[in-house]
From TrEMBL:
InterPro entries associated with the record: MFS (IPR011701), MFS_dom (IPR020846), MFS_trans_sf (IPR036259), MFS_Transporter (IPR051788)
UniProtKB keywords: Membrane, Transmembrane, Transmembrane helix, Transport
Cellular location(s): Endomembrane system
Organism this protein belongs to: Flagellimonas abyssi
Protein name (database record): MFS transporter
Recorded topology in the membrane: Multi-pass membrane protein
Amino acid sequence: MKNVNKNQLFLAACISLVVTSMTFAIRAGILTQLGEEFMLSNQQLGWINSMGFFGFPIAMIFGGLLYNKIGARKLMVTAFVCHMLGLILTMMAGGFWTLIISTFFIGFANGSVEAACNPMIADMFTKNRTAMLNRFHVWFPGGIVIGSLISKFMTDFGMGWQLQIAVMLIPTLIYGYMFFKQQFPESEHIETDTTKNIKGLADPLFIFIMLCMTLTAISEFGPQQWVERILGNSGASPMLVLAMVTGIMAIGRYFAGPIVHRLNPIGVLVMSALITTAAVYSMSVAEGSMIYLAAVLFALGVCYFWPTMIGFTSEYLPKTGALGMSLVGGAGMFSTAIWQPVIGGWLDTAKETAVSSGLADEVAELAAGKATLGKMMFFPLAVLILFSILFVFRKKLEERRVPQGHTEEVV
């Protein structure tokens, strides 16, 4: 890696992740506008949301399988092209099906970013993998802060959803330029034999982690993606709640290193699941300004889920290589895709029940949101039980972990 500028590659990777997260935040912010303009139900909006999450795991599966052969550069070319296509097609959308197609392209681009950057970072910073993956994933919540504030500002000033989508073209062009002028590293510190990677997938621990990832992902993205619809009549500003949550997540991930080293990834995951369960329950019963306190708790809970799960796979299941990291991430997004229309259906059903009981429309919306959050609480509760099982065997699992250092390798 002598001629590789690791800092510049890391920075470009972070900007590409900003684009990824902005697509989540701005889509959450414009759901109501899309529903009104195209007369879409919550369930139809859920299907549109699901395409972003569905395209993601497809890209990660293909990216994981092809990473050893084509490398990070070609995967990032794919990400750039699909981001441009998806954003432009979204601006030109005329209804449900065109939104479905354009959102799929964006999801595929987002998955390509993760499929390329996670193994590249694990390879470049092999002595500090989970900490550096947390630092990379600072920019997922960081981008959501940026996107949610942009969405709120533009919506408050009457700017349409097409302009909000167009804003994302700027960081897309920036990361494309930065990546394409850099020399990419050859894989040196991860397993690059795809046959061995595939054999490693048969490890019971890998299957267990895949199952856990399906629950941690929906625990994080379920409340986030529906924040505007769930909290729109709560007395709190949904996009400010989203910005606050993701801002806290970004700070937590930036300083993840000492926490990961002290608790190890398994301890971090148990702690996260416990806090998230309490937080989602609190959000389901909180009123007015108390929602902000529940949201802070939620941010502290889900903060380390995603990057620590990827880091766990890299450190405890090294034989799975880039494929293992991609499949774990893909499992999380696939699960989130499946649950999106289900959550939308929960909202529709709960609102119908509330309206039939005599509640006014706005009150019914709030009641439906709280009932839906109550159901979402069972996702982190289930994963808390699973991580507790992992915690019991933590000493045995440490024997298979890739040795880790205790210093940061990039700023």
